[in-house]
Amino acid sequence: SQTIHQWPATLVQPVGSPLSLECTVEGTSNPNLYWYRQAAGRGLQLLFYSVGIGQISSEVPQNLSASRPQDRQFILSSKKLLLSDSGFYLCAWTRGDSTDTQYFGPGTRLTVL
Amino acid sequence: KQEVTQIPAALSVPEGENLVLNCSFTDSAIYNLQWFRQDPGKGLTSLLLIQSSQREQTSGRLNASLDKSSGRSTLYIAASQPGDSATYLCAVLNSNSGYALNFGKGTSLLVTP
Question: Residue A57: its chain B contacts at CB < 8 A?
Fold first, then answer.
């Protein structure tokens, strides 16, 4: 069966510090991978998606970046965090066709102070 | 751009009641519509997925309907229980963004004993 992991589960960082969040998927190959952010009072916002190794598409211009160094690993990064980066970050995967649901990880709660 | 709206934003009902959650979307060119459940501080759990060619899906006490032409979906929960308390999210899949989902802001449901 497939499993999706995210870490860390919670993170408190000062403004201006770097960020690295990691997501890995087990039990499947060549998944589509996604980073979403859920901020207070707002819906889930798509940040990045990837349909293959090294292929990253950005949906929202901001100070975040993403990378996919391996088939089942997706990393979200920032060089300098802003207060507005606070939120709940969710990684998800799908087999990459229109008939499949998306499977979500447990999320990372990021608080920027 | 696809816009997904969920009404009501919050709902409180006594245990045992049947209830309906509503979702509307602006672009009817969708592949599918999905309903998710989110418990506080947790990731998303898929409840039901309705393909664009389908009218409804059922799972246990849950029934979801889809009227693509009018851009509406409903999630019907029968005989509600306190364990149903959670946020319910509606999401639609369009052809853009690598099969990423467009989410509504959710309905926060509280079922009281």
Answer: 97-98
Residue B74 tokens read as 């409903």
Confidence of residue B65 (pLDDT cuts 50, 70, 90): very high
* Residues facing A103 on adjacent strands: A93
Nearest CA-CA partner of A75 in A88, A89, A61, A87: A89
Question: Residue A106: its chain B contacts at CB < 8 A?
Answer: 42-43
Contact state of A107 with B43 under an 8 Å Cβ cutoff: yes
Please write the tens of the pLDDT for every residue from A79-100: 999 999 999 999 999 987 777 8
Inter-chain residue contact A107 with B42, CB threshold 8 Å: yes
Radius of gyration, CA atoms only, chain A: 13
List the structure tokens of A65. Answer: 């970046």
